[in-house]
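Task 17 of the worksheet. Students: predict the tertiary structure of the chain below and write it out as structure tokens. Keep your answer in the requested format; marks are given for formatting as well as content.
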Amino acid sequence: MRRVAYEMRPAILDDLGLVPALESYIRECCGRRPGLHAELRSQGLSERIPLPVEVTLYRVVREALNNAGRHADPTRVLLLLEKRGRVVEALIEDDGRGFDLDEVLQTPGAAVGLIGMQERVAMMGGSLTVDSAPGSGTRVRVQLPLD
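Model answer:
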């Protein structure tokens, strides 16, 4: 239980912030999945953003990366983080198998991770969109207000 709690909010997130925490997680992810190249690009995040927003983004990005690794067998994942005004956005793109979103959402128990991501983002007043199709990879976009 302690390990799960740590993974959901590692000390590096509290100490150094979102970008270093995600860089660390991406290194760990790629280390476990040979052949996977992940890249993180950030813009406008030189200063810390509110901790609840950092924690939410960390958890959602982590779930999106885990889903890609578990289900899509990608070779490349791109994570873009950008702060624009009073909004922060995360875009997670992979070149994996892709999937039929409607089919997954209608299959009992198949969309637990997606539903959890949607709920986390909605509780923060943000939006989450998922674009995917079989054979064309997946794009997850998260927008959260900083207020």
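Marker's comment: The chain has a mean pLDDT of 90. The chain has one domain: 2-145.
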